Amino acid sequence: MMRGLLAKTVREVWVATLLIGLGLLAVERVLLFILPQIQGQVGALMESLPFLKVILKGLFGVDPEGQLSSQLFQALVWVHPVVLSLIWAHEILLCTRLPAGEIDRGTIDILLGLPVSRRFVFLAESVVWILSGAVVIGLGSVGYFWGAASLEEDLRPATSRVLLVLANLGCLYVAVGGVAFLVSALSNRRGKAVGVVFGLLLASFLLNFLCQMWEPARPFAFLGVLDYYQPGKILEAGTIPFRSAATLLGVGGLCWMGGLEVFARRSICTA
User: Fold this and answer.
1) pLDDT of 189 higher than 80
2) How many domains does the chain have?
3) Measuring CA to CA, which residue among 172, 149, 189, 190 is closest to residue 231?
């Protein structure tokens, strides 16, 4: 039965997963082509526009004092809004399918009528979520390394450090997906679930920049998901902050388990 549920879910999401993954591949390749060419211009703009330094600090996670190094500048490849938007769109698409999406489509009765438990159904959806996420991030990595291969060796970070950034991105993926599963489990309509998750991510993104510009907001930086995902620090130090990775995985795991229990126990009315 697990094989059947997995096959059903894969059939329904593989096209979207492939398109988003290819889109991420293209974006990474384009960014790797453009960034080395504009790096010098950004350095000059930072001298004339100090406000730009604040924006870059919010993106990189480190203070870009002086001229940005080519390797640190590549942190932008993994925190660019388009990159994060594609990954988060994929998560929202997959993680709001159950039960909110099934209720909206009127197919929840058929799904729950199968001779398996609700937890089993939830687990099957979660397996596809993780595997498809690996495909999307993997295709994005192909685009990055494809573009990086055209750069001189001293202009690109060590592969080991890039892999650490990808590991941290995987932790971020788990955190956002776990929250989306919980919101979906509490919702009867997919549109509402998508709106709530999107609103939380947007608020997190805005909080990250607000904390760089407004001192009173800094004590609340821990509430933003991007406070725990800072590729610039990883590329600079060569290590993943254990606290950040543990927090992302912990939040994602707890929210995922909460979503599992809510879905397993709640009363679903389709009338």
Assistant:
1) yes
2) 1
3) 172
